[in-house]
């Protein structure tokens, strides 16, 4: 790359996905480096439905590093943002000193302007920090010409963000080094591996979560002996079992382990002192609904998982989507006539038999679920080539306030 001589900013835009853990990460052994007490495994969701877009601009004319998130300028001195910026610049400097990079020396001293938006509500509790930090690190790496392993840097933004650096099925290996160099994400299977797998995000509430994951897991590590037992004696075996279920595309095994691990994570929250409740009565109703639905058919067709909030993420196979979506719509009648109830991948019509409704036998809960996002497994972060998609204009400032 020739040395930059103009005042025109150097601009790069990328997108990154949300991921949903099926073996949960909960608890750190090192708060600064974000090193977990157990390994975890997740599914990367498709960016057509859920993604973060980030534009980074660098210019010698910028006075300071600045960041705008969803249209609002935020504090760039946030320690986790600073860790990501520092680590990327450090790697870029190292590459330059090693003489194996095309980065021009000027751009390393340049300040950055960062602008980032989600195509889904930030406050809906849909792991926005994972997609956000993954996108930030991926985009910064492109700007500064850094290649190779980046999940270790994304991890320092938010633990779960390291898993959003890959598509498909991804594990975060906890590692055992003090410096965290071996605490990295790795793809288990690519996004093409299990094309029939479908994901439904049931948005139960758009309110902010009561206790953030960072402080929640801190209290759990301090007070829950169930969490210690889980990390030491349960998760290692589950990582092997889950990898095997995914490799074999064994839906029943995948689904049962996903539900059990979600339940155990929420049990550790209840075992935390004072206890943390992420599930509400809507979440509990969804859990009952899934178990009754599976029981009705005498096989595991649907699985749920919940993170640090009341929204459910449902896994099922393509062939069961229309009926299950209509079951959800029947037991959680939406406010409107249902036109906006289903977003994302189109869902075919299905009729529900009286026998199935009776078999499930729950009292309908009107307006319990705001909407459903229908999606599938998707790829990792990517570069957006189309300049019209940039969030910063050619002067390096946000195009418009959203
Ligand atoms: C319940 O990655 O948000 O979603 O590392 O403190 O930023 P920090 O926490 P975060 O925790 C995610 C917790 C979880 C489970 C998971 O995604 O594995």
UniProtKB/TrEMBL annotation:
It holds the Pfam family MDD_C. It is an enzyme of class 4 (lyase). It catalyses: (R)-5-diphosphomevalonate + ATP = isopentenyl diphosphate + ADP + phosphate + CO2. Its EC number is 4.1.1.33. GO terms for cellular component: cytosol. Keywords: ATP-binding, Cholesterol biosynthesis, Cholesterol metabolism, Lipid biosynthesis, Lipid metabolism, Lyase, Nucleotide-binding, Steroid biosynthesis, Steroid metabolism, Sterol biosynthesis, Sterol metabolism. InterPro entries: GHMP_kinase_C_sf, Mev_decarb, Mev_diP_decarb, MVD-like_N, Mvd1_C, Ribosomal_Su5_D2-typ_SF, Ribsml_uS5_D2-typ_fold_subgr. One of its GO terms (molecular function) is ATP binding. Coiled coil: none annotated. It comes from the Eukaryota. Residues 199-384 form the Mvd1 C-terminal domain. Pathway: Steroid biosynthesis; cholesterol biosynthesis. Residues 16-185 form the Diphosphomevalonate decarboxylase-like N-terminal domain. GO terms for biological process: cholesterol biosynthetic process; isopentenyl diphosphate biosynthetic process, mevalonate pathway. Catalyzes the ATP dependent decarboxylation of (R)-5-diphosphomevalonate to form isopentenyl diphosphate (IPP). Functions in the mevalonate (MVA) pathway leading to isopentenyl diphosphate (IPP), a key precursor for the biosynthesis of isoprenoids and sterol synthesis. Belongs to the diphosphomevalonate decarboxylase family. This is Diphosphomevalonate decarboxylase. It comes from Oreochromis niloticus.
């Amino acid at each position: 790359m020739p040395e930059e001589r103009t005042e025109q900013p150097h601009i790069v835009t990328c997108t990154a996905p949300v991921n949903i853990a099926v073996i949960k990460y909960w608890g750190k052994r090192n708060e600064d480096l974000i090193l977990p007490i157990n390994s975890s495994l997740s599914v990367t969701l498709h960016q057509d439905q859920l993604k973060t877009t980030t534009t980074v601009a660098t210019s010698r004319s910028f006075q300071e590093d600045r960041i705008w998130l969803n249209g609002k300028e935020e504090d760039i001195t946030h320690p986790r943002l600073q860790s990501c910026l520092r680590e990327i610049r450090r790697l870029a400097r190292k590459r330059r000193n090693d003489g194996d990079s095309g980065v021009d020396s000027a751009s390393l001293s340049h300040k950055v302007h960062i602008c980032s938006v989600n195509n889904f509500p930030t406050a809906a509790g849909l792991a926005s920090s994972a997609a956000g930090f993954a996108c930030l690190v991926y985009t910064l790496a492109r700007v500064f010409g850094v290649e190779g392993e980046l999940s270790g840097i994304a991890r320092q933004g938010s633990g779960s963000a390291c898993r959003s650096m890959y598509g498909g099925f991804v594990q975060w290996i906890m590692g055992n080094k003090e410096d965290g160099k071996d605490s990295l994400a790795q793809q288990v299977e690519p996004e093409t591996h299990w094309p029939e797998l479908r994901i439904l995000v049931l948005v139960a509430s758009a309110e902010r979560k009561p206790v953030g994951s960072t402080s929640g897991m801190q209290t759990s590590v301090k007070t829950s002996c169930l969490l210690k037992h889980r990390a030491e004696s349960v998760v290692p075996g589950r990582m092997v079992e889950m990898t095997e279920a995914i490799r074999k595309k064994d839906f029943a095994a995948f689904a049962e382990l996903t539900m059990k691990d979600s339940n155990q994570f929420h049990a550790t929250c209840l075992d935390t002192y004072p206890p943390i409740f992420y599930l509400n009565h809507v979440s509990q109703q969804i859990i009952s609904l899934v178990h009754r639905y599976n029981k009705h058919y005498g096989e595991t067709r649907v699985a749920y998982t919940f993170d640090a909030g009341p929204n459910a993420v449902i896994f099922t196979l393509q062939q069961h989507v229309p009926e299950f979506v209509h079951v959800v719509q029947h037991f959680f009648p939406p406010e409107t006539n249902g036109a906006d109830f289903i977003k994302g991948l189109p869902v075919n019509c299905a009729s529900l038999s009286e026998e199935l409704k009776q078999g499930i036998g729950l009292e309908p809960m009107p307006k319990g679920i705001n909407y459903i996002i229908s999606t599938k497994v998707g790829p990792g972060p990517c570069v957006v080539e189309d300049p019209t998609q940039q969030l910063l204009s050619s002067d390096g400032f946000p195009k418009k306030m959203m």
